[in-house]
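Methods: example folding runs. The two proteins below were folded one after another, and each record is reproduced exactly as written to the output file, sequence line first and structure-token line second.
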Amino acid sequence: MAMDFDLLKEEFLSYLRIELNRSELTVKGYRKDLNIFQRYLKKIFQKEKVEITEITTNFISSYLQHLATDLQHRPTTMRRHLATLKSFFNFAVLHEYLVKNPAEDITAPRIPQRQPAYLEKKQVEALFRTITPDTPLALRDLTMLKTLFYSGIRVRELVGLKRQHLDFQEKIIKIVKGKGEKQRSIPLHPELEKQLEIYLKEGPTCQDDYLFCNYRGEGLTTEFIRQLISRCAQTAGFQQKVTPHILRHSFATILYKDCGVDLKRLAELLGHSSIRHTVVYAHSDVKHLKEAVEILPAPGEEGIRVRYPLPGERAAWQVLEEPFDTKIAQEQNILTGSKSLELQEALNRYLDYVRYVQNFSKTTYIGKKHILQRMVSYLKETVFPGQTILLKDIKTAHLRHFLQFLHTEKKYKPATLYTNVVQIKTFFKYAFQHGFIDLNPAAKLVNPRIPPREIQYFKWDEVQLLFNNLEPEDSYYLRDQAIIKTLYYTGIRAQELCDLKTEDLDPALSTLTIVSGKGDKWRLIPLHSHLQETLRLYMKKGRHHPDSPYLFASPLGKKIYPGTLYKIFRKLKEKTAITDKRVSPHTLRHTFATHLYQGGVDLKRIALLLGHVNLNHTEKYTHTSQEHLREAIELL
């Protein structure tokens, strides 16, 4: 079906606004990015209307190059533009205007990892001191700065504040229209409460009940506040650029690092719907992570360099976050849809939604498809043989029979059953929300309880056995030795190690960058001092193919694969006396995390080093031996 870009753009923006219920600011951002792309289209094609089928992958690549070279856009901005185009063309594929997304295979520009900029408490106080509140407008300026810092609100939320949003009886500020149209309440800090009471008595009179206004009584713009803070920072003698968002970063970082506030409460204060967005404020600097890695022993040492928190120390990791409630609503669906939709058709629509709208990775997509297709096959063969299965005919009992079949006939373990239940719930939740069914038959399914099991890991003497049982006469001895030690001293996954390139290794050999970890996440890992020595020797004498882009190359100079690593570990298992546990790259990852925990490193830093976004995934490494427990008791 032919469709020109301009018409599809408007249809896509309506879809964002109406079906996905995105905020006006979000829709405005998409429109801005697509307009820039559209101007480039007209310039290159030399015509007003361009069919979307004319846009190729190569064309989009040249557009990104145009953003980088001609418009001097930063990688972060380029990633945003690419994300916009991917969503736009996914929409076109979903609605059958295109067969394939031309932006799908384009890799987003790499962004160097950086710590969010923030001010220390003393710097914030110095910023406040640059304003003398001797006039109503000066009092307004000081009050705005204190509101930004003591509440952590966004600058756009600040300019939207009205007097009725302050509740001195409950001692809260109500954010009525936050990012994504979300609402939240923020407790009033005593210092801010006192400042606001003075401001309401002596500050300027504002129109339309705005809390902050200009000299004419009109509401303020975000740009005005940015300029105000910039002037204050210059007056205070700061070398760094200070923005309203840096005050928000300061609020969050000081609460987490200095006050020990857990991430879940911090997410609620900041208005984050997911803790994943809040984890950025828990990012330790490289020095902080380096201290953690150095707890691991070097060969020849007796064991882990234990460092427990000193008496009186308060650490944010002492409070573990609970997962957010994700229960599926049981209410009658008020949406309308096709009530005679076939199960297979509904599944195909859901998988298209997962692949093109949610933009899950191919691996995740295949995993979901495999599980749900198995459910469809079971229902066809046992519950509805020879019949057309309508989505509305599926009952909770049918799904329970399927899970019972997986448990008794297929002998699935609880962890595998748990995955199946989650995927089935997600599918029927999608069908319910899109009006394909009136009641959700999966809503009452209970996730199987997964019995806790002890994580396998090596003791330090076993790690040294692995180090010492490689064959020095092997031509790839230095490479394999560097591989084993990299796995232990960084805790990276086997696939992450195989993907490593020489450019990911800092020239000074002080840090390693994981560019595309699990879930396409990336992170920065400081290198243990012993590992630095090992890699220095390997880079100097052990690389058979110095021109290969890969850090650990095959005999042909190409990328190695996890199978190569498992061969190395099978040989090591034959040579060592380690028979009671699995000898594999992942066991070394478990060992890395367990040794750090036993050395007194907090879970948050371990999570950062492992690339976990949720502390629940890291908590499994808190298993302890009797010796570890005895060491803790001896601290009394």
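Second run, written to the same file directly after the first:
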Amino acid sequence: MKIALGQINPTVGDLAGNVNLMIRVAREAAAAGADLVIFPELAVSGYPPRDLVEKPSFLEGARRELERLARETAGLPTDLICGFPRRNRADTGKTAANCAAYISGGAIRFIQQKMLLPTYDVFDEGRNFAPGEHQSVFAARGGRLALTICEDVWNDKEFWQRQLYRRDPVEELVASGVDFLVNISSSPYHLDKRQLRRDMLGAIARRHGLPVLLVNQVGGNDQLVFDGSSFVLDAEGRLRALAKSFEEDLVLYDTETGRGEIHDNLPVEIEAVYQALVIGTRDYVRKCGFRQVLIGLSGGIDSSLTAVIAVDAVGRENVTGMGMPGPFSSEGSVTDAQALAERLGIRFELLSINKVYGTFLESLVPAFAGRPADVTEENLQARLRGAALMALSNKLRALVLTTGNKSELAVGYCTLYGDMCGGLAVISDVPKTMVYELARVANRRHNGAIPEAVFTKPPSAELRPNQKDSDSLPSYDVLDPILRAYVEENESPECIARNLDRPIELVREIARLVDRNEYKRQQAAPGLRVTSKAFGMGRRFPIAQTFEE
């Protein structure tokens, strides 16, 4: 049997468009000689549909489109497997179920319901779906297939030190006797996730002596980026077919010969992170109905990297950079921003905030009488820049991309309604030290578009004379490992201080800053997730709370 891995980029809610995409790819697979084409989890609806599945009209629409998919592929010599949501048939539990359908000869021949519903990190499927109580093996083109849906394979007792679920669907299905294990997934990307998937499924393949086929969604949906990277492993866990990362792809695998196509998929992880940010930005802009984006260019490393990512995501003709010098801006903040814009070929607007800042301060004199200047006046500059960006956003109908990084967002080194203004926080899950790594990737792709001075100048918000980030924060090579341990690993300050050999007072102060700035993060623009624990939907802490480490 020749099997095609149909790695596609569905849009959440575009039921008809997603099915049209599968029809087109199924025809391509048939023309390539495939007997079976496999599509990702919830390919009909897009993933994650979240509370859309609570709408009866949404589930009814998904049912109609699945039936149309069967009708319009009836004349093909190729069978299909795809994911879809449907009404839960049980009398109790949630109203929806996460299912996979096997389609052959224009009819839906078999349906499998997902059993393991993740409710950790970015996942909340237990809120929306009812778990399946049992699963069955089915025959397709003479082979017996164990069809699983994403999390169903993430509970192998010999791979994980701690199992999250009492049941192992793979173990139960394999006991019935199967020839292949198929997993359709919408598994989001984070650093090193691609290798983790391959290692885990390789262990399952070797344990059960079965070939494993995984088809993963690709593209961005809100804060999640899906890398695709679909693959086939043989019974010894060796790679036999591989799809591209961060691109739609169609890959063929022959079960008789054990041979498949191997496509390049960005083996260097920092290159993969960069491409994840590109596709996440592109899909967020496109799927939200925008074409143009707008970025405040300060001449710093963060806004420079964001601008290059934007050019790769939506094209230079759709990117506008806006320089907004103030009373404490260095000459380089303007010249470096202009040089970047020229090298990238993007539109650049220069709008000084000096006059409006002076007028605003003057109007506040009566209200501020008797009080010394402090961070209030600093933040006012950032908020005026935010107002200018949003004004141009309205006029151009362009989405503002915020430029703050994860290190700043973690400790609150950012201004609400100022530099945090915007519709998408492109690098909000990128630590400052990684920003520099990604900027080097950007320069390799764009012939040194980011001026070298941007890499060497001390980071600064430029909101007071000679200001540097190091005036308020430890150096980023000290700060970032502490933040990673505290935010991503949930380690205590005492443990962090001991492991990193840092003063306990310093670590406690950083932990205090992280905790007290939750209110800012919950008002921030959605950001693209590229680490194992991002701020946003995967990290849910209360704002009004008094617990301290």
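Comment on the second run: The chain has a mean pLDDT of 95.
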